[in-house]
Request: fold
Amino acid sequence: MNQKIIAKYVRKGGTQYWVIECPHCGRRHWLKAGDYTKDPMESLGLRETLCGELVILESQCRVCGCTDALPCPGGCHWVKPNLCGRCADIILNRRYPGHKKQQNPLPATGGGGVAG
Ligand SMILES: [Zn+2]
Ligand SMILES: [Zn+2]
Ligand SMILES: [Zn+2]
Reply:
């Protein structure tokens, strides 16, 4: 059995990383998640740490602490690394108090993330 580890998303320059506290050597490891155009979520799952141990990397919401294994009640999804959809809504409402979720008449176009 491989150990599950919460990985923290860090972007430095044009490169993305998942940072973990290594359970084997107690040090912090920076595992590359590709350059910034890649979806870092694809780099989660089974990874080899710098000390040669296999672990399973998991994202965790930095606000509410939910994970794939323990999502928010009712379920949620990742809108950003370390930020789930529920908390993203809350943050958006806090930042733009006038902003409310509206019934948007625009048809869903599917795919195509918003850059920036
Ligand atoms: Zn290690
Ligand atoms: Zn959350
Ligand atoms: Zn959540």
Q: What stands out?
A: The CA atoms of residues 79 and 85 lie 5 Å apart. The chain has a mean pLDDT of 88.
